[in-house]
C-alpha cells in the first residue's frame, strides 16, 4: 500500500506500539498483562509496518528471521525453568536474584519469572510474524 | 527426582531447538535427532526401573503443591508408555535418515518430529487435565506440520481433513475440561478422583463422560469418529506415518484409560456400554475397511483402527485381566504397527509403489525384509507364539471370564479377518511375481541406506519376538499396571501428599 498518510503515521505508531508492548510485558509481573499479550502487540507493530512500507522493509526492520526469534524465545523460557537446578529446587520454581538491597526493603530483585515472560514474548512475536510474513509472501 | 520426570519432555524440546538451528545440514540434524531420542530412551528406562521398585512417582512443577500446581506423575502405565514411545522415536529417527529428503529436513522435519515426541511424552507424564490438553496441542501442531511438510498436493488434501476433525476434538476436549472445572473446581486428576465422587449430579457427570469419550475418541479413532485417519495417514513420507501410527492414536487411548479409571471410576454401566459398543464396532469396521483396500499403507491404516477397538475393549470390560490385556496389547501393537509401516516404506523403495497391484516379487528379491514383515504382520494377526497372540489371549480370556461370549466371538472374527488382510499383502506384495518383471533387491541399496532401513526394523522385530517368546515378565508388569489403575491409592498418595523432591 502506498499511502503517505499511513506511512507517516506508522513511523510514530510503530515506536509507540513497541514501547507499549514492553510496558505490557513488565506490567504483567504483578498486574494483567504479560509476555503473551505483549508479544501479540509487538507483532501488530511489525504487521502495521509491513502494511505501510512493504514486506522487505518489515523484515529488515526486524533484522533477524522471525523463526529464529521464536526458537530463541522458547530456549530462554526453558533456560529460566532450568535455573532452579542451581538452587536445589524443582523445575520451573521461582528464583529471585537480589541486585541492590534486600527484597523486603525496596531493594531491586530480578526473577526468573521475568525471563520466562520475555521468552514467551519472543516466541509469540516470532511465531506470529512467521505466519504473517508467510501469508504475505503467498498472496 | 522431580527433574527426572521433567526430562521426558525437556530433552525432546531441547533437541528440537538445536535441530532447528542446524536445519540446513541434513547429516548433523539426523545425528542431533538420534542423540536426543537415545537420551530420552535412557531417561525412560530410569523412570521404569524407579516406578517398578518404588511405585508411582510424582513431582510438583515450580514447587506449587497439588492440587494447585501442575503435577507430573509416572505410574506403571505412564512409564511403559514413555519407554515404548522412546523406542519408537529412536527407530523412526534412524529410519528417517534415508526416508526424509533434504528439502524436508531444511523445512524443519527433525524439529517438528522432536516436538511431536515432546507432546507425546508430556501427555504421558502429566497429572493435570489442562496440562494434558496443552501437550495434546503441542503434539497436534507438530503433527499438522509433519503431515504437510513438503507441500505436495495430496499432502494438503489429507492435511485439511486431519486438521478439521482434530480441531473438533480439541474443542470438545476444552469444553469438557471447562465443564469439569465448573463442577469440581480442580483439574488435578488425582484430586478429581476424590472431588468428582462427592458431586451429586449424575446427569452432568454422565454428560461429561460422554463428551470425553467423543473428544478422546476422535483422537483415538474409534467408531464412528475415525474417518480422518484413513484419509490422511497415507499422504506423508512413511517415517512420519510410522510415528503417527505408533503413537498418536495411542495417546488418545491412554487419555481414555486415564479418564475412565481415575476420573470417572464410579460411572460404570452407562459409559461402559458405550465404550463396549464402540470397541466392537471399531474392531469390525476397521478390519472390514482394510479388506476392501488395495494400497499397502491404507490397509495398514484401517488396521490401526481395528486394533484401537481391542485396546478400548479391555478398558470397557474393566476387569484386572482385561486392563492388563489392554496394556500388553498396547505395547505389542505400537511395536508391530510402527514396524509394518517402516517395512512398507522399504517395500515401496524396492518395488516402486504402494499399490498392491503394481508390486510383487519381494520375497524372492529380499528374503530378509520378508522375514521381518512376516514377524510383524502375523504378530498383528495374533498368530501364536508371536506377541499378538498373548495380547489377544488376555483379552479373550477376560471376556470369557465375564461370560461375554458375543464379545469373544467378535474378537476372534476380527483376528481371522486381520489374518486375511495380512495374507493378502503377503500374497500380493511378497509372493506374486512383479508385474513389471523386476523388483530391486536390498543389495542394490548402498550399505549405509540398507543399515538405516533395516536396523530399526530388526530392533522392533526383535522386541516383537521377545514379547512373544518370553511374555511372562511383561504380562506380570501389565497385571501390576491394571492393579494400579483399578486401585489408585498409591497414585493419589504420591500426588496429594507431595512428599517427593
Average the pLDDT over all residues of chain A and give the rounded result.
Answer: 88
Gross morphology of chain A is elongated
What's the domain count of chain A? Answer: 1
Beta fraction of the residues of chain A? 5-15%
User: How big a fraction of the residues of chain B is strand?
Assistant: under 5%
The amount of helix of chain B comes to over 70%
- Write the element-wise H/E pattern of chain A from the N-terminal end onward: HHHHEEH
- Which class best fits the helix and strand makeup of chain B? mainly alpha
- Poorly predicted spans of chain A: none
**What's the arrangement of strands in the largest beta sheet of chain A?**
1-2
Looking across the biggest beta sheet of chain B, what order are the strands in?
Answer: 1-2
Structural class of chain A: mainly alpha
Count every beta strand of chain B, where a strand is a DSSP E run of 2 or more residues.
2
Q: Please mark out the parts of chain B with pLDDT under 50 across 5 or more consecutive residues, or reply none.
A: none
Main sheet: strands, sense, barrel of chain A = 2 strands, antiparallel
List the total number of helices of chain A.
Answer: 5
List how many beta strands of chain A DSSP finds: 2
Kindly report the average pLDDT value of chain B. Answer: 90
Amino acid at each position: 500500500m502506498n499511502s503517505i498518510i499511513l506511512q507517516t503515521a506508522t513511523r510514530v505508531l510503530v515506536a509507540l506500539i513497541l514501547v507499549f508492548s514492553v510496558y505490557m510485558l513488565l506490567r504483567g509481573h504483578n498486574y494483567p498483562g504479560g509476555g503473551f499479550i505483549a508479544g501479540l502487540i509487538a507483532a501488530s507493530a511489525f504487521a502495521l509496518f509491513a502494511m505501510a512500507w512493504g514486506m522487505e522493509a518489515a523484515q529488515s526492520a526486524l533484522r533477524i528471521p522471525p523463526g529464529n526469534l521464536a526458537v530463541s524465545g522458547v530456549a530462554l523460557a526453558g533456560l529460566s525453568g532450568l535455573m532452579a537446578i542451581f538452587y536445589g529446587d524443582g523445575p520451573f520454581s521461582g528464583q529471585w536474584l537480589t541486585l541492590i538491597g534486600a527484597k523486603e526493603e525496596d531493594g531491586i530483585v530480578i526473577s526468573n519469572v521475568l525471563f520466562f515472560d520475555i521468552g514467551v514474548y519472543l516466541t509469540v512475536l516470532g511465531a506470529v510474524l512467521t505466519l504473517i510474513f508467510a501469508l504475505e509472501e503467498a498472496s | 527426582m522431580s527433574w527426572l520426570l521433567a526430562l521426558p519432555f525437556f530433552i525432546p524440546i531441547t533437541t528440537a531447538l538445536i535441530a532447528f538451528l542446524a536445519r540446513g545440514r541434513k547429516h548433523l540434524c539426523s545425528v542431533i535427532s538420534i542423540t536426543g531420542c537415545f537420551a530420552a530412551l535412557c531417561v525412560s528406562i530410569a523412570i521404569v526401573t524407579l516406578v517398578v521398585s518404588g511405585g508411582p512417582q510424582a513431582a510438583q512443577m515450580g514447587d506449587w503443591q497439588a492440587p494447585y500446581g501442575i503435577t507430573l506423575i509416572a505410574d506403571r502405565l505412564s512409564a511403559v508408555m514413555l519407554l515404548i514411545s522412546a523406542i519408537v522415536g529412536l527407530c523412526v529417527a534412524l529410519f528417517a535418515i534415508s526416508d526424509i529428503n533434504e528439502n524436508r529436513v531444511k523445512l524443519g522435519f527433525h524439529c517438528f518430529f522432536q516436538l511431536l515426541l515432546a507432546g507425546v511424552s508430556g501427555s504421558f507424564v502429566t497429572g493435570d487435565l489442562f496440562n494434558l490438553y496443552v501437550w495434546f496441542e503441542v503434539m497436534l501442531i507438530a503433527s499438522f506440520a509433519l503431515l504437510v511438510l513438503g507441500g505436495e498436493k495430496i499432502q494438503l488434501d489429507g492435511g485439511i481433513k486431519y486438521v478439521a476433525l482434530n480441531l473438533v476434538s480439541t474443542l470438545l476436549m476444552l469444553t469438557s475440561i471447562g465443564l469439569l472445572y465448573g463442577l469440581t473446581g480442580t483439574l488435578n486428576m488425582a484430586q478429581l478422583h476424590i472431588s468428582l465422587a462427592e458431586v451429586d449430579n449424575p446427569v452432568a457427570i454422565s454428560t461429561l463422560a460422554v463428551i470425553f469419550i467423543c473428544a478422546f475418541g476422535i483422537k483415538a479413532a474409534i467408531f464412528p469418529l475415525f474417518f480422518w485417519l484413513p484419509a490422511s495417514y497415507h499422504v506423508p513420507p512413511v517415517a512420519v506415518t510410522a510415528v503417527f501410527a505408533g503413537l498418536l492414536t495411542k495417546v488418545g487411548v491412554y487419555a481414555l484409560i486415564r479418564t475412565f479409571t481415575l476420573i470417572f471410576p464410579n460411572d460404570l454401566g452407562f459409559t461402559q456400554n458405550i465404550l463396549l459398543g464402540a470397541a466392537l464396532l471399531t474392531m469390525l469396521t476397521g478390519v472390514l475397511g482394510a479388506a476392501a483396500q488395495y494400497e499397502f499403507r491404507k490397509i495398514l491404516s484401517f488396521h490401526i483402527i481395528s486394533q484401537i477397538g481391542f485396546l478400548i475393549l479391555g478398558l470397557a470390560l474393566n476387569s484386572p485381566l482385561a486392563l492388563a490385556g489392554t496394556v500388553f496389547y498396547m505395547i505389542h501393537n505400537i511395536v508391530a504397527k510402527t514396524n509394518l509401516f517402516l517395512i512398507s516404506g522399504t517395500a515401496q523403495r524396492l518395488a516402486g509403489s504402494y499399490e498392491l497391484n503394481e508390486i510383487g516379487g519381494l520375497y524372492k528379491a529380499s528374503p530378509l525384509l520378508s522375514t521381518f514383515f512376516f514377524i510383524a504382520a502375523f504378530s498383528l494377526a495374533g498368530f501364536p507364539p508371536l506377541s499378538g497372540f498373548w495380547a489377544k489371549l488376555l483379552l479373550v480370556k477376560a471376556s470369557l471370564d465375564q461370560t461375554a461370549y458375543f464379545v469373544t466371538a467378535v474378537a476372534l472374527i476380527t483376528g481371522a479377518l486381520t489374518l486375511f488382510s495380512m495374507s493378502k499383502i503377503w500374497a500380493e506384495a511378497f509372493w506374486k511375481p512383479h508385474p513389471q518383471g523386476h523388483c530391486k533387491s536390498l543389495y542394490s541399496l548402498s550399505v549405509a541406506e540398507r543399515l538405516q532401513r533395516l536396523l530399526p526394523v530388526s530392533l522392533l522385530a526383535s522386541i516383537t519376538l521377545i514379547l512373544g517368546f518370553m511374555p511372562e515378565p511383561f504380562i506380570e508388569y501389565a497385571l501390576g499396571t491394571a492393579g494400579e489403575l483399578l486401585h489408585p491409592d498409591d497414585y493419589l498418595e504420591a500426588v496429594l501428599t507431595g512428599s517427593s523432591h
